[in-house]
Structure prediction request, 227 residues.
Amino acid sequence: DTAVSQTPKYLVTQMGNDKSIKCEQNLGHDTMYWYKQDSKKFLKIMFSYNNKELIINETVPNRFSPKSPDKAHLNLHINSLELGDSAVYFCASSQGWTGRLGEQYFGPGTRLTVT
Amino acid sequence: KNEVEQSPQNLTAQEGEFITINCSYSVGISALHWLQQHPGGGIVSLFMLSSGKKKHGRLIATINIQEKHSSLHITASHPRDSAVYICAVRSRNGGSQGNLIFGKGTKLSVKP
Prediction:
């Protein structure tokens, strides 16, 4: 069974469209994350959710909105897509995020291409 | 300057060699992670450590909190170890508490 799954794996869309990427974890973790990996392979945190509350919100454009219907899901919705949004987006989860806790399990990534 | 610096950026080794990848950071941390990103893109967490040393198979990770430095060692390297190794630290300060801050990765290629 896949621990952290993302759909779709590949997403090609045009500028200006709205799209969502879904993430689900079956590990019983209470914290989930979204990361963006740019063309230079540099990873950066976008959002994290702990117990359905947004606890860290990096300075990402407000066109990006995370939505967590329950503890096992954290979806990423993107409005008015721009060329610069093209990247690989990784979802991850952990049990807690402080102290000794917080080892993260990553999804397979979603490669978003905006044309 | 990035808060997390890795060296080297690229590393080519012959099968069987002992490999060391270094990570230095400049922020206060609660933990340091070593991640492995396979050529296919998947990311796996190798270690999370806040002090001392951890070993898993042929991989060893060490951290020196006073010197703000960590190393990842691979003994008896094998071509299947070829991947990008990423160091990430969890900041313990301010509004970014809990964030993972990533290094730019070290691309390792092990030749048979």
Q: What stands out?
A: The longest strand of chain B covers residues 29-37. Chain B touches chain A at residues 30-31, 33, 35, 37, 41-45, 48, 50, 84, 86, 88, 90, 95-102, 104-105 (CB under 8 Å).
